[in-house]
Design a protein that fits this description.
By secondary structure, this protein is an alpha/beta fold. The chain has 9 helices and 26 strands. Helix content is 24%, strand content 31%.
Length: 405
């Protein structure tokens, strides 16, 4: 019997690596729906999209690594179902593969907009390597790019397109970009960053349809009748977890696939990792499903250890993500959902884009974000984990070291 991993993204590969690094010498089968061998996703909206990294730079392992480590990598292989009773996965072509333990690492898919015009050439999404190739080609040939959605992907693509010399318009329904994630004040700082680089950021707008001519996208129509002209339209309105297999197999769900601290689902033979896993975070005293690189990076090895029954296999990382836009670099640690923080403390200068932001509730730190200020992530994590009450004045004072709080 094999240990089978469904999903050949970062979480799946890290699981396979973890099995081998822990000394497991049995059969490992890694199933990926895409034709490409496993690759890293953050560069798709950053360095790779801008041409600063070539395709070899995004692959997680060499082509030879999988054979050398006895990992049966099958690309272009879709899984149609999980037969829990038989402990088998059923491939789209009808083949069945038995498993001793199964790890679901199926990731997410880009959300679609239910509006007319999304089928036009030039309307793009960004989730896969092929998506990034199409988007890069579109940006290089376009004079005008419209980005629907002012989230992380939308803003990173806007920065890449603007850097490439295109006229860029960002269309966001909320009052500020990133408002749900960061709140209006920090969202406004990101809007200012993009405006400083010549991006037309339009807020509180409603997109009704994408207009075209001869099958090609030519613009985005807004609720007030205005049309934003564009040769390329990027739809960046979030991602949806690929939980169809888990749902059909009747695994317990809670936003994503419900897992315990060992990343085990309601079936003791099945684990879930990465974007689809709804994980309990002890330091935050809550369950979350986090669609970011670090979650995939960190859950894979824990699942591998749990599959092998190693005693230390529990997940205790904090949510973490990062972005790069123009000359701005940012790291975010912890979690503060919409309306959860009752105080925002800023240390530094929002206008110069050099600051640390802290979200607190009742004086307790929920999350921290450092922007163009480095080597403070460990201090932020320590303060979150401590659960203690912080003095906002000292937190805001750059002369007080975070290490001393």
């Amino acid at each position: 019997m094999s240990h089978v991993i469904v999903g050949a993204g970062l979480a799946g590969v890290r699981t396979a690596e973890g099995l081998r690094e822990a000394g497991y010498d049995g059969e490992v089968v890694l199933l990926g729906a895409e034709e490409h061998r496993p690759y890293d996703r953050p560069p798709l909206s950053k360095d790779y999209l801008q041409g600063a990294t070539d395709q070899d730079g995004v692959f997680l392992q060499s082509a030879a690594w999988f054979g050398e480590h006895g990992v049966d990598l099958r690309t272009g292989t879709a899984v149609a179902a999980i037969d829990r009773g038989a402990a088998e996965v059923v491939l789209a072509d009808g083949e069945r593969i038995g498993y001793e333990r199964l790890v679901l690492a199926t990731g997410s898919s880009a959300r679609r907009l239910p509006i007319p015009g999304t089928e036009l050439d030039g309307v793009l999404h960004l989730r896969t390597l092929d998506d990034s190739d199409r988007l890069r080609a579109g940006i290089l040939s376009a004079s005008r790019v419209a980005v629907i959605g002012g989230g992380w992907i939308g803003l990173e693509v806007a920065a890449a397109a603007r850097t490439a010399g295109a006229e860029v318009t960002v269309l966001e329904a909320a009052g500020q970009p990133l408002e749900a994630a960061l709140g209006p004040r920090i969202g406004a700082a990101f809007a200012a960053l993009h405006r400083e680089h010549g991006v037309d950021v339009r807020l509180g707008v409603h997109v009704t349809d994408i207009v075209g001519k001869g099958g090609l996208a030519r613009g985005v129509r807004l609720g007030n009748g205005d049309v934003v002209e564009a040769d390329v339209v990027l739809v960046g309105v979030g991602a949806a977890p690929n939980i169809g297999l888990a749902e059909a197999a009747e695994l317990e769900l809670d936003d994503g696939v419900l897992v315990d601290e060992r990343l085990c689902t309601s079936d003791p033979r099945i684990h879930a990792v990465g974007d689809i896993a709804a994980i309990w975070y002890p330091a935050l005293e809550r369950r979350l499903r986090v669609e970011h690189w670090a979650t995939a990076q960190n859950t894979g090895p824990v699942a591998a250890a749990a599959v092998l029954g190693l005693p230390a296999a529990t997940y205790d990382a904090l949510p973490y993500f990062f972005t790069d836009q123009y000359d701005l670099g940012m790291e975010y640690t912890g979690y503060a959902g919409p309306g959860e923080a009752d105080e925002l403390v800023v240390r530094g200068d929002l206008e110069r884009h050099e600051y640390v932001a802290f979200w607190l509730r009742g004086g307790r730190l929920l999350a921290g974000m450092n922007v163009n200020i480095w080597d403070v992530t460990e201090d932020i994590e320590r303060l979150i984990r401590s659960g203690g009450t912080l003095d906002p004045r000292r937190l805001a004072d750059p002369d007080v070291s975070l290490a001393d709080l």
